[in-house]
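ok new one. same drill as before - structure tokens go in, u give me an amino acid for every spot. 963 of them this time. try not to just spam alanines like last time pls lmao
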């Protein structure tokens, strides 16, 4: 009986394809070229695989449209018949010559895992071969169930379980050398990506190179190994290998897609898109390029918020192209979609994407595990209520159980079981599941042990986790992730467990396990440990060494950590060089990571402090820069003596006494006492008469007794007590700002000379403070200034740093005026802005303009993002005018922008230089602005900006820790 050849099988379908192309209006020249290439492929060696490759190539080139439809239909009509003819050829060859039949069968099997798209549907047919062929195969793959399992694992993409099969084919003497090389490379990739063991993978890569040195896949596997190792130098080398590969072999799709993966890893999605499109152009029949690009378009871009939405139509076309190349890939696409959404934190969307793949034989296990992992993450997400979390975990258990029934030996199922147990806090169960995985699949022993150590660390059992890491380090020191696990354990052991010895041991172990090119990571971590131990000088040296050791590109974290370490160094006489280095480090961190939000405000703070030190000298750090309000805390029994009946404000008598008290101190000593506030002691002792004095944020200065009595007498007795306390501590109020203000009021040449020379102002403040502490008066400030200048000698050649020129604040009132003239509206607006009602907020009046109404009637005042309607005739009715003014006052915060704050600080700097410097050094301009705007919105005011700044500086600050 005659068995038709592939060429004969194609005769009638080719004629029908030409006819259909003509009917559908396809480009006949292109159709003819594609079909004739396909016809030629069917006459060559291994006609099935040559035909298959040619079909993929022409379908990939065709793009969307009639031509692709013609080619897909042609393939669907012919491919099954050609596969059947190939199976008959292998069987008949075996009947004539069993050894030749086995070789033909093996060649077909390895070609299913060959270059280009894998032919797993044909592998599924090849396992159903005549029994005698099986008997010629070496153990352990000589039985039908084993071969069927191989096909099932491959179809389900369970590559981590196929190492033995790839090794069997790679070492079989009847397989040709190039194909044995390819199979060994696949086994090495299993060891690299699933077992996480690059050294063992390298053994197989070298065996493959010995078998077939010209194999084009060899440089790809070398680059992939470097990518997994992941140091900066290794990534650079991998990039160079791949770039050279795309130049020398542009038709090798792995070069392009790995470059795309590397760009995606760097966060450059645009470059990744370019590489994936080049892969599609270079190898149009490969599914790798469009699949990578499809996944890329599902991601969120760090620079483009509309990335995913903008590529929705691209994803639809890519999906159609992938399905045209591989009609069976639909469920795999759904799993890929779910995986990407899951990785982006879109867990519920991921579960929805997995649903179509749940019932397909190829993807039912992967889809269920994807759903389970998404449900586990949803259950453990912040803010999840316990009842809802329990429901999500219950769903996860159901999906895992279903997957375990379908694939009881799958390591992927075991990983998900471990993840669920850890999420539920069942630490012993999770550790036991790791041990079961390690014993059931020897290749996974290392990564299972590593997962066990991570679980022990998360549970707080640092000692047992360390035992596990030491065991793995002795058995498998090259295991990927082991050094990182040791470092993570060291960090937690110290920061959470306080175990310095274990932390240092783990950091040293992590360093020993890693390549010397990664020594900078160890140095940085050891620097962190020294930082947490308050050994800042040692930490700084280690951070410097980490920076010097790391090759390009440098790590901004190292520069940030160096700045944090320098910030803690407090050596007298060395602060200017310390802050100079800190500024350099933070500038470099900002350059390397311009989008990191923490770095710019820290740089601004460091620059301000450096400027302060350069202006006022390091001695100023030992003196109080600016006076803050005095806190007087009273026992509740004394509060009626100073408050009004409603206890909302100081009584008139108390206000008069405080003013008289401050004036007496000023006339007696020349010291200006800051404002005084009173609060409830609230100690619950029930004993009356306690008075607690606290200056700034210092500990309470004094505790004295005052007996409560009638209001006027009690008030005077209380104020006498406070005055006595203030006299005792009045030297503490001699600050840079107070002295600068007094010198500015004095206005004499000696006063101006000291005030304008920061290097003189600091010692002059110290001299005045010592005089006040000795009981002297500084009312003779001009005399003291002259004497100070005479003792100092000729003034140094010093110029004050130029002040920034900041333009006055500006904001535009856009007013629509169908009835009034612009001049009338503008006049009324200016009167409102100058009225006590608005001016009381302390917000400077902005520039104003009037524009004609584009439509409608009435007048609207635009205040930033707020719109205030102006009632008709408001300017003639006082009550309406007042209502409008109140509205403007309510929205006053809209007008207080960062530019106005900068201008106010600029004006304040001449009288309160140290307060402004301290404010800028402690808070960024944006942070100061946000806090002051909140003060306005909560009903406060900015009439006294120094007080507002002092309150802001006393608010809690965010603390930074090294990374």
């Amino acid at each position: 009986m005659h068995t038709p050849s592939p060429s004969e099988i194609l005769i009638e379908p080719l004629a029908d394809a030409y006819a259909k192309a003509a009917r559908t209006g396809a480009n006949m020249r292109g159709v003819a070229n594609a079909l004739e290439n396909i016809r030629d492929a069917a006459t060559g060696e291994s006609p099935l695989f040559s035909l298959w490759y040619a079909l993929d190539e022409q379908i990939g080139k065709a793009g969307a449209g009639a031509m692709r439809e013609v080619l897909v239909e042609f393939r669907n009509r012919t491919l099954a018949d050609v596969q059947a003819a190939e199976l008959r050829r292998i069987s008949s060859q075996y009947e004539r010559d069993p050894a030749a039949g086995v070789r033909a069968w093996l060649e077909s099997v390895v070609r299913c895992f060959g270059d280009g798209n894998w032919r797993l549907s044909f592998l599924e047919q090849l396992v159903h071969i005549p029994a005698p062929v099986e008997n010629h195969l070496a153990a352990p793959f000589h039985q039908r169930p084993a071969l069927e399992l191989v096909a099932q694992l491959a179809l389900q993409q369970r590559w981590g379980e196929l190492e033995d099969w790839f090794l069997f084919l790679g070492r079989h003497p009847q397989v040709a050398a190039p194909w044995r090389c390819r199979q060994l490379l696949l086994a090495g990739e299993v060891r690299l990506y699933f077992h996480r063991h690059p050294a063992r993978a390298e053994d197989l890569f070298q065996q493959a190179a010995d078998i077939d040195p010209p194999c084009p896949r060899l440089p790809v596997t070398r680059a992939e190994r470097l990518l997994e190792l992941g140091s900066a130098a290794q990534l650079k080398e991998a990039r160079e290998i791949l770039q050279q590969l795309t130049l020398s072999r542009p038709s090798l799709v792995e070069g392009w897609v790995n470059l795309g993966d590397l760009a995606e890893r760097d966060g450059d999605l645009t470059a990744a898109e370019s590489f994936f499109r080049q892969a599609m152009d270079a190898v149009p029949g490969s599914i790798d390029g469009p699949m990578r690009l499809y996944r890329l378009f599902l991601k969120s871009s760090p620079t483009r918020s509309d990335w995913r939405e903008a590529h929705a139509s691209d994803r639809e076309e890519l999906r159609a192209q992938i399905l045209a190349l591989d009609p069976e890939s639909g469920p795999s696409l759904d799993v890929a979609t779910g995986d990407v959404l899951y990785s982006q934190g879109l867990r519920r969307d991921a579960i929805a994407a997995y649903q179509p793949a749940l019932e397909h034989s190829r993807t039912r296990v992967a889809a269920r595990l994807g759903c389970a992992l998404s449900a586990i993450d949803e259950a453990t997400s912040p803010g999840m209520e316990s009842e809802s979390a329990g429901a999500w975990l219950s769903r996860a258990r159901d999906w895992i159980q279903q997957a375990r029934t379908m694939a009881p030996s799958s390591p992927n199922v075991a990983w998900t079981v471990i993840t669920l147990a850890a999420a539920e806090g069942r630490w012993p169960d999770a550790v036991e599941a790791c041990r079961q995985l390690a014993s059931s699949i020897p290749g996974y022993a290392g990564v299972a042990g590593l997962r066990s150590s991570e679980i022990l660390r998360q549970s707080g059992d640092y000692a047992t986790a360390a035992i596990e890491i030491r065991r793995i380090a002795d058995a498998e020191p090259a295991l990927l992730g082991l050094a990182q696990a040791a470092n993570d354990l060291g960090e937690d052991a110290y920061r959470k467990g306080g175990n310095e010895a274990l932390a240092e041991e783990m950091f040293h172990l992590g360093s020993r396990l890693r390549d010397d090119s990664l020594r900078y990571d160890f140095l940085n971590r050891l620097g962190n440990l020294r930082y947490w131990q308050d050994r800042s000088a040692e930490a700084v040296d280690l951070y410097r060494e980490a920076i010097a050791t790391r090759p390009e590109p440098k790590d901004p974290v190292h520069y940030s950590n160096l700045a944090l370490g320098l910030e803690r160094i407090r050596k007298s006489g060395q602060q200017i060089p310390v802050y100079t280095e800190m500024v350099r480090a933070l500038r470099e961190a900002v350059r390397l990571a311009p989008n990191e939000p923490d770095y710019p405000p820290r740089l601004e703070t460091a620059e301000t402090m450096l400027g302060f030190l350069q202006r006022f000298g390091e001695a100023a750090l030992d003196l109080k820069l600016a006076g803050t309000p005095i806190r007087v805390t009273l026992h509740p029994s004394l509060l009626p003596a100073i408050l009004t009946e409603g206890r909302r404000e100081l009584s008139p008598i108390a206000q008069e006494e405080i003013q008289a008290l401050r004036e007496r101190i000023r006339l007696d000593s020349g010291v200006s006492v800051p404002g005084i506030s009173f609060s409830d002691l609230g100690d619950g002792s029930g004993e009356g008469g306690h008075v607690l004095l606290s200056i700034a944020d210092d500990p309470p200065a004094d505790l004295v007794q005052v007996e409560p009595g009638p209001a006027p007498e009690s008030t005077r007795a209380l104020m006498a007590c406070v005055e006595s306390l203030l006299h005792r501590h009045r030297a503490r109020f001699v600050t840079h700002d107070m002295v600068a203000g007094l010198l500015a009021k004095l206005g004499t040449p000696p006063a101006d000379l000291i005030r304008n020379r920061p290097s003189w102002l600091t010692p002059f403040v110290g001299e005045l403070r010592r005089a006040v502490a000795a009981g002297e008066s500084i009312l003779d400030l001009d005399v003291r200034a002259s004497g100070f200048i005479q003792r100092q000698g000729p003034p140094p050649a010093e110029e004050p740093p130029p002040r920034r020129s900041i333009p006055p604040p500006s904001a535009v009132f856009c007013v629509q005026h169908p009835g009034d003239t612009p001049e009338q509206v503008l006049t009324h607006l200016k009167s409102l802005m100058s009225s006590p009602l608005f001016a009381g907020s302390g917000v400077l009046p902005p520039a104003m303009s009037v524009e004609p109404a584009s439509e409608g009637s009435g007048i609207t005042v635009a205040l930033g993002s707020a719109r205030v309607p102006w009632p008709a005739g408001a300017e003639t009715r006082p009550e309406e005018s007042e209502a409008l003014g109140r509205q403007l006052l309510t929205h006053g915060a809209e007008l207080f922008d960062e530019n106005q704050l900068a201008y106010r600080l600029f004006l304040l700097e001449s009288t309160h230089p140290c307060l402004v410097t301290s404010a800028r050094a402690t808070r960024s301009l944006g942070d100061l602005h946000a806090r002051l705007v909140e003060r306005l919105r909560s009903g406060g005011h900015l009439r006294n900006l120094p007080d507002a700044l002092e309150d802001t500086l006393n608010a809690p600050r965010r603390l930074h820790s090294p990374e």
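The longest helix spans residues 66-96. and btw Strands lie at 630-634, 676-680, 690-695, 702-705, 859-863, 866-870.
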